[in-house]
Specification:
Shape of chain A: globular
Number of helices of chain A: 13
Helix content of chain B: 25-40%
Structural class of chain A: alpha+beta
Mean pLDDT of chain A: 79
Distance between the termini of chain B: 66 Å
Strand order of the largest sheet of chain B: 2-4-8-5-7-6
Strand content of chain B: 15-25%
Largest sheet of chain B: 6 strands, mixed, barrel
Number of strands of chain A: 27
Low-confidence stretches of chain A: 43-87, 107-121
Distance between the termini of chain A: 22 Å
Strand content of chain A: 25-35%
Shape of chain B: globular
Oligomer: heterodimer
Mean pLDDT of chain B: 87
Number of helices of chain B: 11
Helix content of chain A: 10-25%
Strand order of the largest sheet of chain A: 6-5-4-3-2-1-11-10-9-8-7
Order of helices and strands of chain B: HEHEEEHHEHEEEHEHEHEEHEEHEHEE
Largest interface: A-B, 133 and 105 residues
Low-confidence stretches of chain B: 25-44
Largest sheet of chain A: 11 strands, antiparallel
Radius of gyration of chain B: 27 Å
Number of strands of chain B: 17
Amino acid sequence: MNCERAQAAISERMDGERLPGRVAAAVDAHAVGCTSCRAFAERAAELRSAVRIRPAERIPDLMEPIMAQVARSTPPGRRFGGRPDRERWLRPIAAALLVGVVAGSVIVGGPWQSGGTRTTATAVDVGRGVRAAARHVEAYHAVFAITERGLSIDVPTRSLEAQLWFSAPGRYRLDVRDTTSYPSEAWTPTDLTYVQDGDATLRSGPSGCPSSLPPTRCPPTRTVTQERSPYAGAATSVADLVVPLDVLANPRGLAVERTGTVLGRPAVLVRMSFARAAPLFPFLQLGGTWRPFYEGDRVELWVDAADWSPLRWTVYPSQDATRAAWEMRFGRPSESPAIPILDVIATQSDHLRPTADRFALAGAAPQVPLDDLAARLGFHPVTPAATNELVLTGAAAPPTGRGSLQSVLTYSSGLTYLRVGERHRWTSPQPFGPVSADAEQVQVGEGVAYYEPAAGDLGRRLSIHTSDTNIYLETNLPRDQLLAVAASLPLTGTELPVAWRVQHGGDARTELLTLAQAKAGTSFGFDVPGTLPGGYVLASVQRAVVRGVQSVTLDLRQRDSDLGAGPIRIHLEAADALPPAASAHQITVPLGAVEARWIPAQARLEWVADGIYRSVDGPGIDLGTLAAVASSIEASA
Amino acid sequence: MRTGPKAGVAGALLAGLVIGATATIAIQSRALEPARPGRGVGTDPVVPGPPERPDTFLAWTPNGLPPDFGARVEALPDIARVTVVAEDNTWLVRSTTDAGDVADRPPAPYMIPIDAAAVDTRTFADFLPMPDRNITVALARGEGVLGTTSAELRGLGPGATLTFDTGTDVRIAAVLPDELVGAAELLVSRRTGRRIGVHTDRYILLQPSTARLPTSARLTRRLRPLLPSTLDPVDRKVQVRAPGETPYFRQGDAVLPPVLLKSLFGEFAARPVPGDPGYLQVDPRWVDTHIVTVTIPVLGRVTCNRALMPQLRGAMQELDERGLASLIHTYNGCYVPRFINRIPTASISHHTWGVAFDCNAATNPFGSPTHQDARLVEILRRWGFTWGGDFIVPDGNHFEYRRPSAG
């Protein structure tokens, strides 16, 4: 009996199903020793009770508000897809269908489980909803009230107001005004401004000076980037404040808890970790002073069931034991998991198009016509034949810092974007763009390319290397659509040069190989685990020889996004015993016939069997899931 | 038309209920792909066993390790492995991203101080988790590793290049968690370290070979006799730590590492004062924006980092309100840009950030028994200041920022 089966059986029993005696006994025996399943049962009972007692109130209550809200919130002249009459008729039906899906899923007990390992029907449906909304949203304005707790003893609570404007294509503005009453002038209010107009951005924040210092002496920090290069990692994205596409498009790590009404609007509650919800907090990256947050802290997000805008999101301290080590490192006091430490509420919103002056950026470089761009570059940038209905909205030639020339073309529709960068001269021993050498090699047309899922402020990325040029694509389109766009480019990608894939240092050597190559030349047997969380694929295989000892490392990446749960790394190496325990906390867990070591701080499960050391690392992934992956490695050994 | 939408909505709601329930049950039953048939491993619940005691220790001595200390420790019969880590301040003059874009270019003649550690890649590998040991290949090639906080501070990652005042370029091969690099900003090989100015052995990591693991106190007693008898009695001390006893395995672990000070209080560019290299000349623009002189209760006029002032003011107000102001006889300074003990080869003093202050220096000189009142120490500790009286070489007049106030 494993957790998956036990929890399914617990659900069935709560629904009144009679379990066979043998199964019931196994479930009970399992639950005695499994804190995760006991917690599951308790939460399930609580929520089930809430749903059962008031189902007739909760679900029908949503129908009229949804219809009324949809009617109210569609401003005159607002058009999605150019078919207003048909759409107006369809939208309440679509909203009701969604509410039904959520409610149906809740009733059978599964979708609201935590743990980050499940792909639920409702989470999938939420993903579809936000993807559709993101493609069609043309304009947005919202005001958010932000309450932060626990910055310091002198300032236990802070209040800030944020205003967001969006106008397609690619224009954003976020203003944050700190309305906190500070105890003295030594404190610096966190007033921030972020403006993006295509490839030009402006970031302005406090300098760290107290408010008593005149602005002439201590002006705010101000950073203007006129043309973003393909290395846009430093760029901040505020797009998820319009529609949380990055957060919700990938269902992994999301738990859709229930439906309800928030701020008078029909809404869906989604729960996730702070790391998973990072794109909802762009203001934390813009400067000023903010309290720290633990990546495992719990975020509850209410999202509008009609237009998919975020209505309210709240951060609660995690109960995770590893938070204590984090608190020690940051010198933080222990915090109650019941008291929110950050709360963001949308107090008003509309879809009226802001005036252009909201996004005025002094010194922003004008867009360059495509033909002029070719003249500036000395080559004509390659363009995809298929862009998935996105239209060309920008063309630029940002400086490279190395004297060579590069182009960046931007295609967009609503919040959805595709950037295509190209540089002819590229000598760094890794793929062009923010794509690592151990990225997943994928087939694109007749050639190959190197793919990485979305992570941080970067979208899904693809790097293509040819003997003549280097191409970089970045998008928030789904992976399959990105590959289709890449396949329409008029070129054929080649494998990375050997010199980029093989490295020597002293008497040691590392090399990136295909799975078949690595299997053929390694002294011990291995394979891709038979059990993997949904959405993970083998990205790369590295073989190394260090001090004469051969090892193999498999990197498994999510297909779409690294948010909340990073790559799974599997390492195998000839060894007789585990290395010395080096972390402050590590525990022994059974893994079939062997004992494994679980190191929570590194999210690593490691063990030795038959003279081979094996480890599974999975940041953001729970022990139960990693144990299942580890078990399948053992089973295939 | 009036009943059409309502009927449609009701139908859609019903259809949604069925779809949601069916799909959820289907997906619940196969959230994980099934394991292959095998030895039946992994169907048991994960019931954690007892905690495992860590068996890796840190040992360091004041002002750097004595020569051959690592070898002496390794020669002990019950020690399995030792690696010696050198760490010094180095001077960064330029950094570029992997695309060649300039990330740091401090205005001449100033340079950015970088806390860099250097290791013997062969012995250090044993102290890395096995999956991370491949990084020693890049270190042996002359490349470097950034700690996580360092990478975030600089906005740099793999492929970036750091250029030092010695003219040496170090390409970044990877970013590792701070705890794996002792919270250093940059980790390089011994050879590369010598080229950028890392010479001083600071601490060792060791793993005992005995089945019965020693405690930190027992190990301290084992290591202390290995210190040369010629050492000054003040320096003839060794500090041993086990994981969990200190946030990071590094020397001087009672105070924050430089990379965290930079994150909290800002990063400056500076240079040793010509003709007086124990002191630093800090970029005046940084001083203008980060160092301020204000009046603080009990202490009077104080020149410190702006960000420290609320905490310092709070501590002194409490001291005053509790009638304990008389416990501070003299205030002896806060912002002083210099190296520790004014020794140019030492680390940069935290007074340079303006986050440490001295008081009652006459009765609590460096290296001597301390005479601070316990109530003063307790109040300041609660307001987030660590006390130098607890240092391995006591510095009873010294208090410095360690964490936010706990109230």
